[in-house]
Amino acid sequence: MAAEGYREVMRMFVVDSFTGNAFRGNPAGVVLLDAPADEAWMQSVAAELKHSETAFVETGGEGPKPLRWFTPTVEVDLCGHATLATGHALGGEQIFTTRSGELRTRAENGRVSMDFPADPPSTAEVDLAAALPGVGVEELVRGRDDLLAVVADAAEVRTLKPDLDAIAGLPMRALIVSAPGDRPGIDFVSRVFAPGVGVPEDPVTGSAHCLLSPYWSARLGRPELTGEQASPRGGVVGTRLEEGRVTLTGQAVTVLEGELLV
Predict the structure, then answer these.
(1) Which residues contact 127 (CB under 8 A, 6 or more apart)?
(2) Under CATH, which number does the domain 9-116+249-261 receive?
(3) Is 53 a catalytic residue?
(4) Cα torsion at 74, 76, 82, 86 (round to 10°)?
(5) What is the pLDDT of residues 97-127, one digit of tens each?
(6) One of 39, 53, 102, 257 is an active-site residue; which one?
(7) Residue 213: DSSP 8-state
């Protein structure tokens, strides 16, 4: 029932994804819908919340649940951390229909696993001198939407100061910078910059690990790996590569639950 003066009241959450601690990892909005919502309205809500992505999931029907993701400025085809946040908020096993096909999540023992399509790397030729001034890129590959620049040392990833204006001009959604891990239990580190879609630096990016997983699994010779996204908030993503799919695993913490009045 709508509160007085409002047409509808919707449940919503803010969930910190890929972390076991509040105010770490990547925060995502999750809005539960009884029926399809207007695209412009969803974009306005995402702009209001200002998280790197807000998920909108229809829970009113039977069968797989339609799921969409919006940054503060655009709709995106795939978002890992907001899908993990949605799976955490709903609990149990979930099946979603999305612009990237059918996705599944399972919330169990304080962790959420997600079945995503792998994004195998291919060679790329893009001049990154302006975007990554002074950085020695050893290898550059691309996936469907992102560029992956590999450097030699994790310390260079951790202290990186990219030119965000130059990155915004690149012909891809995001630039991922990655290196071998430098801590026990961490196989690779990364950071992700997507200013062209309204996300200067994404704290932890599940969809980027669909590209990072096949790259590092091939390089390290193991299907199961652990990545650390070394943003200021930071987060940890487990990856398992199998038959063209990537299982992404992480913890999540609900930091806000309330009502969206519209």
Answers:
(1) none
(2) 3.10.310.10
(3) yes
(4) 100
(5) 999 999 999 999 989 999 999 999 999 999 9
(6) 53
(7) H
